[in-house]
Structure formats: structure tokens, C-alpha cells
Amino acid sequence: MSEIKPKNEENKILVIDDDKSILKTLSSYLKKLNYEVYSAENGIEGIEIAKKEIPDLVITDIKMPEADGFEVLERIKEIDNHIHVIMITAFDDMHSTVKAMQQGAYDYIEKPLEIDKLKITINRALENKRMSEKLSSFISDEADKYQLENTLIGKAPSMKEVYKKIGQTSSSRVTVLIEGESGTGKELVARAIHYSGITKDNPFIPVNCTALTESLLESELFGHVKGSFTGSIRDKKGKFELAEKGTIFLDEISEISPNLQVQLLRVLQQKEFERVGGETLIPMKARIIAATNKDLHQLVQEGKFREDLYFRLKVVSINLPPLRKRLEDIPLLVSHFLIKINKELHKNVTKVPADVMEMLKNHYWVGNVRELENTLLQAVVLSSDDILNKENVLLRKPEPGEIKEEVVKFITLAENERNHIKCILDAVQWDKNKAHKILGISLPTLYSKIETYKLSPFEEKTE
Ligand SMILES: Nc1ncnc2c1ncn2[C@@H]1O[C@H](COP(=O)(O)OP(=O)(O)OP(=O)(O)O)[C@@H](O)[C@H]1O
Ligand SMILES: [Mg+2]
User: Fold this and answer.
1) Strand locations in 155-273, DSSP E?
2) Which ligand gives the minimal distance to the CA of 254?
3) Fewer CB near the terminus (10 Å): N or C of the chain?
4) In this predicted structure, what is the pLDDT of residue 235?
5) Least confident interval from 180-194, 201-215, 281-295, 360-374
6) Residues flanking ion ligand 2, Cβ below 5 Å
7) Cβ distance 195 to 182 under 8 Å?
8) Could you identify the atom of ligand 1 that is nearest to the CA of residue 188?
9) How far is the centre of ligand 2, averaged over its atoms, from the C-alpha of 289 (Å)?
């Protein structure tokens, strides 16, 4: 490791430990690293010093007489929430480590202290604090719980089209088919249609068509009369009745059996149905919104889904764009989810470094908005300060099979060659010796192509 001395004079570190030898060793080590060091032999004294000096970092032992490490942590956070606290835990004490992290410690180090680890942890804590002071808060105003749960976020033209359709369909009871990949917000759209329109004072009833066997699903939807099958000991209303004049949301509609497809078609055509085993016709008042993440049109062509039902469902269709087709909405979504997650977890992650945002914008979001939300949730859980740190943003690399075919680009062979050469050169940091071998051309040929295509390492990416 290099021994370049960092400029540490501006950083104040307070060390609290009742073990005098540790206190002394630690303090003199930190002083050698050029920090401004304060030390205290017990928690009470430590808290007093913290109040006066407002250190950048506190390193405190846990087991101490009078005020222990947890109390110190709590009081320090009251004095200034931005002071990072590193706890010294016993090697095998899982419980206090867990508790320390829960209560907002920045990190912990184990006894016996290892100098290298300690140095890394301290550096990281102080580096983070500096960064936090430089970055301004990314998320803005507060929003109430209803809004956080039910607002669709996005300003991309494709989303505006979605909002328009929500508006158009919510004032009538027309059947709607929502199509979109997994996690694009189909259920959210269904709820938006229901709750923003004439159905809002009636129930919204979601039914997942894959969750039940065929006969159970049938009785779930239509209800049944007593004795219609083993175990049906009394009459039971189905979801169509329970929904009254509200909405039935049929999720994953592609999965219903041919038999149920017929029955559903009949309900849609005749606006009435019977309970399983029953004879009375019951009027159908609910509106149907169906959703699918499969290409229903294709299933129709393959003979797996009835064409007549497809057209009955698709009176109005709404197409939700995959997240990777509206990357411009990522900052908005990040802000929205951070507010929501902070609230749920009582955290305060508000700052997003530019490179992290760039990383989020460049990811291929197979799981769409749900994946983004889960990624942020995980990152917030893991973070010990107010920054959305790169190391906590764990992105899942898509499997080759998950990458959807991209739109054909209408470019010439020469443009394609130019792009490919540039791509390889960038990948090997313009090491032309490596690049010509990968490309399978001679070095002089590579030079002449670079010349012809006017390639350079500094060119802006164009899309
Ligand atoms: N535009 C959006 N704005 C805010 N949150 C969104 C948006 N789209 C989706 N979400 C959130 O992402 C998560 C997934 O959305 P939803 O359940 O509606 O997706 P889906 O399309 O029904 O997915 P699946 O096909 O897997 O059932 C939810 O937590 C939802 O609140
Ligand atoms: Mg869904």
C-alpha cells in the first residue's frame, strides 16, 4: 500500500473507550495519520466533547460503564445526525452488531482491532461525509401515502399516451386490455382507471388467473350454489357479484383455460352469468380490465387464445412501455421511490451521485419499474448514510435470453463497420495491438480504417 499522507487536518475524530490501552493506541495512531483527535474514557464524557466539538466521526466501544455505546450512538445522532459513528464490537457478538446497524451506526469494526481494516473504514466514512456535504438533496417535496402508492410516475411521451387513455376509459365502463412486460405497472394502471372514474365508489377486485386451478377459478369468478361440488356446503358469491358496479381486474388473462375463455366471452356478450351449479341468471354490472405480459395477439395466431374473446377484451388497449424505452423517466422514478422507501424504512437516503444515476440510466431493466424499485429498496436498506452509494446499488445482469430483440437499425455496412471498430477500440482502451488481433485485420489496415472513419477516443457517443 502506498503511504501518501492524506490531508486530514480538517477531520475531527472522537474516540470513546473505557479500555485505556486501546484508547491510547487508537488516538496516537489517528494523530499520526494527521487527524484532529479527541478521546474520552466513558460515554458521558464523550457525549460532552461531541456537543462542544461536533466531530466528523465518532469511534466508540459498546460495553462501557455509565453510558454504553448504544446510548452514545443515540445521543450523538441527536446532536447532529450527520456525524458518522463507528462502533467497536466484540468479535462474536452478532446481536450488538445488528442492533448498532439498526440504530444508525455507520459501520462497525471488530475487536481485536485490525489497523488496515480500521483505516479503510475510517476513510470510507469520512469520504462519504465529504461527498454528502457536496451533494445536494436529490429528492424534493413530501407526498402523502396515497400518492406514493397510487401515482404513476413518468413524463415520457409513451406514458402521456397512457395517462390519456386512463382519462378516456375511466368515465365509462368499457372493457380494457392492458399489455406490457412484467413490472411495467399494469396493475397500477388498472387501479388508476378504477379509482379515477365512475367506478371508484365500488370495489376493485384483482384476480390472478394463474393462482388457482381451473375449477377453483371458475367458482371464484362466478360463485357456486350449495352442493354443486364436494365441499360446497353453502351458496357462495363470486367475484363478479362481489365487485358490484366496480372493477374486476383479470391479471395474466393469457393463462385462462379454453373452457373459461368460452364462459368469459359469454359474460362479456350477454352481460349475465350463472353461479356454478346454479340456474338463475345474474346480471353482470362490473367492468372488466384484463392484463397480460404475453403477446396476446401472437397467442391468438398460434390458436392458444380465442380470437373473439381477444377482440371483446381489447375494446380499448393500453400498452405500457418497458422501462428501457423511457430511460428519461429514471430520475423521476428514483426520486419517487426514495421518498417512498425512506418513509417505510425510516431512513433518509436523499443524495444520488451523478455516476450512480448514469449507471441506473444505462441498465437494461428486464424487470422494469418493479426491478428499479427493488434495487433501490435494497440499496437503502444497505446504506448507512444519506447517499445512494454505488456499492449498494446491486444490478442484476440480464441473461442473454432476456434481452429483447432490438429494433433494426437502417444503417450502411460502412457505418456498421465504423461502429464496430470504434466499439472494440473503446473496449481495449485503444490498445491498437490488441484491437487489430480481435478484429482479424493487420495493424496497418486498422490504422488506415481509423484514418478513413476519423475515429478518436474522445468522440461523444451518438445514438
Ligand atoms: N409508472 C410508475 N410509477 C410509479 N410506480 C410504478 C410505475 N409502474 C410500476 N410501478 C410500481 O412498480 C411495481 C410493479 O407494478 P405493477 O404490479 O403494476 O406491475 P405489473 O405490470 O402488474 O407487473 P406483473 O406483470 O409482474 O404483474 C409496483 O410497486 C408499482 O407501484
Ligand atoms: Mg401485475
Assistant:
1) 176-179, 204-208, 223-224, 236-237, 247-251, 272-273
2) 1
3) C
4) 85
5) 201-215
6) 187
7) no
8) 18
9) 12
| Amino acid residing at 393 | V
What is the model's pLDDT at position 460?
Answer: 47
In a domain, residue 358? The reply is: yes
Measured from the alpha carbon of residue 320, the closest ligand is 1
Question: What is the tens place of the pLDDT at every residue in 34-69?
Answer: 999 999 999 999 999 999 999 999 999 998 888 899
Q: Are residues 174 and 277 in the same domain?
A: yes
Residue in 160, 187, 251, 337 to alter for ligand 1 test, most ligand atoms within 8 A of Cβ: 187
Instruction: Answer yes or no: do 82 and 217 share one domain.
Output: no
Same domain, 396 and 314: no
DSSP characters over 415-456: HHHHHHHHHHHHHTTT-HHHHHHHHTS-HHHHHHHHHHTT--
Q: Is residue 437 part of a domain?
A: yes
* pLDDT above 70 coverage of the chain, percent: 93
Nearest CA to ligand 1 atom 8: 185
Is 90 exceeded by the pLDDT of residue 213?
A: no
Residue with cell 412484467: 182
Q: Average the pLDDT over each of 75-89, 131-145, 292-306, 436-450 and give the range with the smallest value.
A: 131-145
- Statement to judge: residues 359 and 444 lie in one domain: no
Pocket of ligand 1 (CB under 6 A): 152-154, 180, 182-188, 293, 336, 369-370, 373
Q: What is the pTM of this model?
A: 0.72
| Distance in Å, CA 179 to ligand 2 centroid | 10
Question: Does residue 393 belong to any structural domain of this protein?
Answer: yes
- Ligand closest to CA 192: 1
Reported as a pLDDT band with limits 50, 70 and 90, residue 226 is confident
232-250: b (≥16 Cβ within 10 Å) or e: beeebebbbbbbeebbbbb
Residue 38: CATH number of its domain: 3.40.50.2300
Q: Is there a domain that residue 167 lies in?
A: yes
Q: How many domains does the chain have?
A: 4
Residues 6 or more apart from 124 whose CB is under 8 A from it?
107
Q: Which three cell numbers stand for residue 220?
A: 371464484
Q: What is the CATH number of the domain that holds 417?
A: 1.10.10
